[in-house]
C-alpha cells in the first residue's frame, strides 16, 4: 500500500500493511525532521520514497522516475533497508538515477537535506536553454562537448546562434543598467552599453537561461570586448561566459542551480609549489570589492574588468569534455595581485599537494570555475549521482 501524505514522502510497505502502521511511520519521520530543523514548507515539498518494511519492492519500482534523482529513504527495522537495497540495484540496472539514504545514520537529516537540494538543482536545470553566440573558440580544443551530451548529463538544451543572423551588436539600444553600473568608464561607453543591450535582447528573444559567446570575434571585427557586459549579466544572476566555452558555461549553470551563486571562469595562469594563479578579464561584478576598467589583456583593446575579488575560501571545479570526470578542490585566497603578464582580474589560491600534482600532470583543461565558499561536499554528491569520477 502506498500513501502520499501532505508531507510528501511516498511511503511503501508490504501488501496489506495497515493504515495505522503507515500513518505512525509518517508521523515519526515528520517529528524527527522537524526536530532537526526542517520547516513545514520543506516537508511539504520534499519528494522521496520512504521504505518502512520489506515486501515493498514492487510498489517502490512503480514510483521510480526517469529524468530525476529518486531518493530512497529507509531505516533498518522490518527489513526496510533490505527492500531499499534491492530497489537501488533495480534502479541502477534500469538506468534510473537513485540514491539510498539511511534514517538510522547520525546525520540523516543533513544528508536528506543535501540530497533534496541536489535533486531540486537537477530538476531546475533540466530543460534550461543555453545560447552559444558564434562558435567555440578555436583554442578550446578540450572544452566543446556535443549538444547531446549536455542534454544527457544536465538536461541543457543548446541553442546555436550565428552572428550573421543576429542584429548588429553595436546598433542595439544601449542598456541603461550598464551605464549605471560603470558610471566612470570612459572606454567606448556607448558601444559597450549597446553590446550589453544586445546580449540581454538575445536572452529574451530566444528564451535563454544562459549564454556564452565567441567574444574574440567582436575584438577582431570591431575592436570591442564583451568583458564588462558579461560581468553585468553575472551580476544579474545570469550564467554568462566567454570564448564559447561550453564546458565552463555548463558548469556555471550547474553551480548556479545547486548553490544559487555564479562562479567565475578563470584561466589557469601558473601552478606554483603550493598555489595557483588564476586570471581573466571579466568576473561576476558582485564579487568585486573594488574594480577598475582597463584595456583587454591579450589585445590591449577596448575594456576589461580589473576587480579585487572579495574571495577568501573558494571551491574550484573543472569538468572534462566527455563530462564524466571532474576536478574538485578547496583553496584559500592568499593574494590578489596585478601582474602585467596575465588577464586583468587575478587571485592566487593555495591548494593541496594532490590538487597541485593533478593540475600539472593530468589537467582536464584550462578554464577552471571558482566559487566563493566551501561547497565541496554537495558538489561532490551531485556529480557522483551523475556518475562522474571525482579528482581532488
Textual characterization of the structure:
With 392 residues, the protein is an alpha/beta fold. It has helices at residues 19-35, 40-45, 57-63, 80-93, 108-125, 147-154, 176-181, 189-205, 215-222, 227-235, 246-259, 353-361, 376-385, and strands spanning 2-4, 9-12, 48-51, 69-74, 97-102, 129-133, 157-161, 210-213, 240-242, 264-271, 275-280, 288-294, 304-309, 313-319, 325-335, 345-350, 368-372, 389-391. The strands form four sheets. A six-stranded antiparallel barrel has the order 10-11-16-15-14-17. The protein has a five-stranded mixed sheet with strand order 1-2-3-4-5, sandwiched between helices. Helix 3 links the parallel strand 3 and strand 4 (69-74). Helix 5 (108-125) crosses helix 13 (376-385). The longest helix has 18 residues, at 108-125. The chain is elongated, with a radius of gyration of 24 Å. The two termini are 44 Å apart.
Q: What's the helical proportion of residues?
A: 25-40%
- In percent terms, what proportion of residues is strand? 25-35%
Mean pLDDT value: 95
Adjacency order of strands in the biggest sheet? 10-11-16-15-14-17
Rg measurement, Å: 24 Å
General form: elongated
